[in-house]
């Protein structure tokens, strides 16, 4: 029996706060948010990727007296180490070769507002000292500057790493850790709040239909139970992307259990990309095109690592001939552990070089982000 979205209640915190969910865990989080939001205390939010850390940080800001000033989310893991202080605190003219003008950093721009430091565990030790100082007395110096600047900024930090372990290992300052964790909250993964999943599905189906101008999907109960039973490693974000994809690929259908199984069977956390076009036919073509591109990228990668492995035995010219590579793709061909290991090492090294930035690593490895993601999962690379 199909469920009707319009009759759905997205949870007690949806109307006022736009936070979906009626589980006890999410209600507890909202209670803490309401208590700490007006105080200006710094808050440390932990939780796996995609669990809604930024949603909660922005809610804290919006429920505080700072709501009319800026909320600036910064992903510390996405900014190169050498630039992070410049981004956070700004620089004085001439402080480094290309610093042509005096620039404001995020802390100056966010005065009277809130800064959300996502992936705080990625902040280099050298910048941690400076951050501690702003937290303690609201002052900092620009890069290349000599005068103290005073600001009034609330800091909310988030992490999906275990900061106390980082403190033990000496990669995160203990004093900063204690300062940040004045208030802590942990966002549960989706598998710890299964009863919220149908609400997310219904709400995201509504939003996707609006976004992609498709008719809204109707879900059979079996479809919902397949979705609830799947392990969404990327949590709410992954589920949301999945519903986007479904809205486009299965447009106008009543989704049953079989349709869901079709997409998530043997799934290791990835499914086909979201495709948006004018017609179903166009989607199909685009899908085939993307898959071909992926295969080409995989071929290039195989070519590259074989060249690295066998340069002494075979001349590179041999591999210019594409049919020769077909042999390598022969499914009956035995893959030696050493080969897998070297690909794993190469991927790990490139990821490390780009400080975990998958987009840049994928570019350098000449593969799509989706392929890279699949390989990270396959080899269990942890960066
Ligand atoms: N309770 C919720 N209600 C509505 N939308 C949510 C909720 N939780 C998460 N989302 C949605 O899920 C997506 C991921 O959320 P968010 O960016 O806040 O996660 P995150 O924990 O910061 O992830 P990451 O660790 O990868 O930075 C966003 O599109 C967000 O709008
Ligand atoms: Mg985030």
Explain what the structure shows.
With about 375 residues, this protein is an alpha/beta fold. It has three domains: about 25-185, P-loop containing nucleotide triphosphate hydrolases (Rossmann fold, 3-Layer(aba) Sandwich); about 195-265, Helicase, Ruva Protein, domain 3 (Orthogonal Bundle); about 285-380, no CATH class. It has helices spanning about 15, 25-35, 55-60, 85-90, 105-110, 125-135, 165-170, 175-180, 195-210, 220-230, 235-250, 255-265, 280-310, 320-330, 335-355, 360-365, 370-380, and strands spanning about 45, 70-75, 90, 105, 115-120, 140, 150, 155-160, 185, 220, 255. The strands form four sheets. It has a five-stranded parallel sheet with strand order 2-5-8-1-9, covered by helices on one side. A hairpin with an 8-residue loop joins strand 6 (about 140) and strand 7 (about 150). Helix 16 (about 360-365) packs across helix 17 (about 370-380). About 25% of the residues are buried. The structure holds adenosine-5'-triphosphate and magnesium ion. Adenosine-5'-triphosphate (ATP) binds near residues 49 and 237.
List keywords for this structure.
383 residues, alpha/beta, Rossmann fold, Helicase, Ruva Protein, domain 3, 3 domains, 5-stranded parallel β-sheet, two-stranded antiparallel sheet, 49% helix, 10% strand, globular, disordered N terminus, binds adenosine-5'-triphosphate, binds magnesium ion
Please outline the helices and strands.
Elements: H1 14-17, H2 24-36, E1 43-47, H3 53-62, E2 71-75, H4 84-89, E3 90-91, E4 103-104, H5 106-109, E5 114-118, H6 125-137, E6 139-140, E7 149-150, E8 154-159, H7 163-169, H8 174-180, E9 183-187, H9 197-212, E10 218-219, H10 221-229, H11 235-249, E11 254-255, H12 257-264, H13 280-310, H14 322-328, H15 337-353, H16 358-365, H17 369-379
Parallel strand pairs: 1-8, 1-9, 2-5, 5-8, 10-11
Antiparallel strand pairs: 3-4, 6-7
Helix pairs in contact: 6-8, 9-11, 10-12, 15-16, 15-17, 16-17
The structure holds adenosine-5'-triphosphate and magnesium ion (MG).
Magnesium ion is lined by residues 53-54, 118.
């Amino acid at each position: 029996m199909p469920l009707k979205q319009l009759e759905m209640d997205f949870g007690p915190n949806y109307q006022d706060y736009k936070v979906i969910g009626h589980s006890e865990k999410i209600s507890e989080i909202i209670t803490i948010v309401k208590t700490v939001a007006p105080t200006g205390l710094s808050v440390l939010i932990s939780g796996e990727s995609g669990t809604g850390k930024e949603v909660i940080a922005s809610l804290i800001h919006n429920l505080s007296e700072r709501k009319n000033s800026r909320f600036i989310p910064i992903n510390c893991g996405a900014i190169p180490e050498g630039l992070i202080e410049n981004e956070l605190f700004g620089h004085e003219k001439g402080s480094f070769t290309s610093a042509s003008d005096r620039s404001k950093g995020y802390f100056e721009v966010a005065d009277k507002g809130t800064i959300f430091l996502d992936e705080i565990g990625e902040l280099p030790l050298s910048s941690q000292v400076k951050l501690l100082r702003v937290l303690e007395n609201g002052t900092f110096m620009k890069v290349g500057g000599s005068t103290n600047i005073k600001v009034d900024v609330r800091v909310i930090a988030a992490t999906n790493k275990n900061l106390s372990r980082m403190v033990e290992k000496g990669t995160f300052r203990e004093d900063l850790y204690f300062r940040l964790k004045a208030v802590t909250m942990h966002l549960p993964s989706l598998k710890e709040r299964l009863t919220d999943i149908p609400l997310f599905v219904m709400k995201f189906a509504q939003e996707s239909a609006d976004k992609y101008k498709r008719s809204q999907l109707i879900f059979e109960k079996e479809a919902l139970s397949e979705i609830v039973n799947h392990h969404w490693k990327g949590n709410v974000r992954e589920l949301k992307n999945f519903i986007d994809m479904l809205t486009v690929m299965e447009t106008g259908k009543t989704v049953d259990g079989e349709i869901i199984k079709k997409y998530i069977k043997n799934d290791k956390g990835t499914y086909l990309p979201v495709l948006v076009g004018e017609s179903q036919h166009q989607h199909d073509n685009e899908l085939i095109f993307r898959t071909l591109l992926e295969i080409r990228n995989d071929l290039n990668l195989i070519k590259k690592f074989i060249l690295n492995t066998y340069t002494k035995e075979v001349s590179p010219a041999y591999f210019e001939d594409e049919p020769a590579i077909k042999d390598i793709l022969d499914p009956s061909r035995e893959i030696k552990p050493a080969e897998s290991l070297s690909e794993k090492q190469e991927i790990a090294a490139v990821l490390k070089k780009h400080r975990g930035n998958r987009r840049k690593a994928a570019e350098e490895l000449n593969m799509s982000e989706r392929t890279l993601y699949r390989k990270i999962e396959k080899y269990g690379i942890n960066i």
